Amino acid sequence: MSQPTSRRGGGGETRDTDWDGVRLHVVSGKGGTGKTTVAAALALALAAGGRKVLLVEVEGRQGIAQAFDLPPLPYEERKIAVAPGGGDVYALAIDPEEAMLEYLEMFYGIRRVGKALTRIGVVDFATTIAPGLRDVLVTGKTSEAVRRRDKLGRRVYDAVVMDAPPTGRISRFLNVTQEVAGLARVGPIKNHADLVRGVLASPETAVHFVTLLEEMPVQETLDGVAELRETGLPVGGVFVNMVRPALLPARALKAAAEGRFDAAEIALGLKAAGLADASAGASAIAEALAEEVAEHALRAELEKRERAELEEAGTPRYDLPLLPDGADLAGLYELADALRAQGAV
Amino acid sequence: MTRTAPALDIDAILDDPDTRIIVCCGSGGVGKTTTAAALGLRAAERGRSVVVLTVDPARRLAQAMGLTELDNTPRRVDGADGGGEAGGELHAMMLDMKRTFDEIIEAHADPERAEQILTNPFYQSLSSSFSGTQEYMAMEKLGQLRRSNEWDLIVVDTPPSRSALDFLDAPERLGRFLDGRLIRILTAPAKAGGRSAFKLLNAGFGVVAGILTKVIGAQVLRDIQLFVTALDAVFGGFRQRAEQTYRLLQAPGTAFLVVAAPERDAMREASYFVERLAEERMPLAGLVVNRVHRSPAPSLSAARSSAAAEDLEARGEHELTAAVLRLHAGRMQLAAREQRQREHFTSAHPTVPIAQVPAMPEDVHDLAGLRQIGQLLAS
């Protein structure tokens, strides 16, 4: 059921994965869907087998530090995890102010003056008056990491994963040229935005969506995919998070959803398992369990409908299991395995 | 030792005529908007005249409240008066951020200046972008609704911010922005009668101006200057109102409800928010925990349930019962994990009352669903 609906890429490498050739993975999702967790797991999965991956966050929430159980990350690329089979995950919390200073230094060699600009509130000003400028700074820093090469001309990072803003804001956030077009028709800001747009709109980028099998996140995912396509940005996969294992046979679920679930059979089972000795006790528990099954069946029906809705997006889809102990560090590795097993990376 | 949080008495808050504003805040995806709508409906059915201000409702929730268009005006919700006996009524509106902003400009500037501002590219970017502006405008709209005195209760759903704290930061950020030295530099030409600002300032600022021109371009700098100059006259009133609204939030007639789901990140965000409200001396009424999982068979523990399932599976008997027991064990584990999250919260904030709403198998899309949530909130 979780088989991707389409596959692409796959030149020459030993593993044929869906996103071969993609070097920037942008991960978006509605609040509460586990976007940061999935971005972290994706970074681990991409690094597996000796690759070097940078995981960036752009909203100052320190979500990566929390996911990996680390103290807050500075504006500095540092190694935070080792992937299965010996790859490295680096992390960077992008701060727009620092990104601006770096930008001034890199392009104009004027870091000191940049500091003066910061002191008089240029960044505050930029983020307040034109939030688009902030977005250009953080997407700019990210695409710089994607393009960066070492002295020998090799790519510094095999891939970059961005824990991006939520689905409701993602198109605007990534559509940097549009965002600054009204503000700067010519000049350095426009040139920089065009450069960033070149990276974001290239086949080397994929924008993924994290969702749950619930109505609102699914609707937002479909809206987000449509919006992204409209703006000409590359849509990646849909990651269905917190998927519960199907414990009950379809027949039992159907009966439960229609209120025909047989509690008497459960009562017999409970007695056989030694959970209730008296018949009255067994049937009381069986009734309560039947109620639980009925709720579960309704939920399962809804999930099935939502899954069918997601088909409309026409993108590869991956299932990530619900982690019984929550998304702790061990859980991230488990999710990374699930991504690799499904051929996402 | 397990601490038990005091129960949050929702009806006492809704029924108190002194409660004039309820603010629902919390991180994204925890059901804030649904909570706000359910509270509004319950208050109306208990006799109050209520307006619910939502920022970005899900389509079906909006439909449930009869909101078919984003028109920035409160619309009456039919069938929400409790059968007319209690005499309450419910209105709902969706915030149109750009229109709210335009209206402020039109109200505070003369027509010529308003035109200058409304057509400036920086204004258009600022007024239609999501980050920041939505918070200012939600605050502004709240202030307007309160000043109109047409409703005796306003329920606000805060914007789906990057951080739940942005809502509180809005007035201060605006103030910092307006007091910024950069603004003073940029507005200087107008104040100096049209001569270049930069000549009046010391050499350091001259360098800054040169850099600004180099980095952002002369045209952009000119647009920014025109925009800031035009806005300057409007800002005073704007800021004063933001401060008024901020004080309104601190007043005793306001009740903040922090909304969360029983998961680590959402509860952590709720904790931050509770601490922040205390710092800002904002009146916190309590915590609403949505989507709580319970079991109708709580006496059968996860451990016993799993062991029995294993036993049946090993014997190859009662397959269905074994599956049901596995399902139950999972549910009990989830419930236990959620309870630990709540206990963490209560250890840190022992006096904060809590209301819990069980997880629903399906999303809410009509008034009956909202009514049910309201009942669960109050029980």
TrEMBL record, chain B:
Domain ArsA/GET3 Anion-transporting ATPase-like: 19-292
Positions of transmembrane segments: none
Gene3D superfamilies attached to this UniProt entry: P-loop containing nucleotide triphosphate hydrolases
Organism lineage: Bacteria, Bacillati, Actinomycetota, Actinomycetes, Streptosporangiales
Taxonomic source organism: Microbispora triticiradicis
Top-rank lineage group of the source organism: Bacteria
Gene Ontology molecular functions: ATP binding; ATP hydrolysis activity
Record-given protein name: ArsA family ATPase
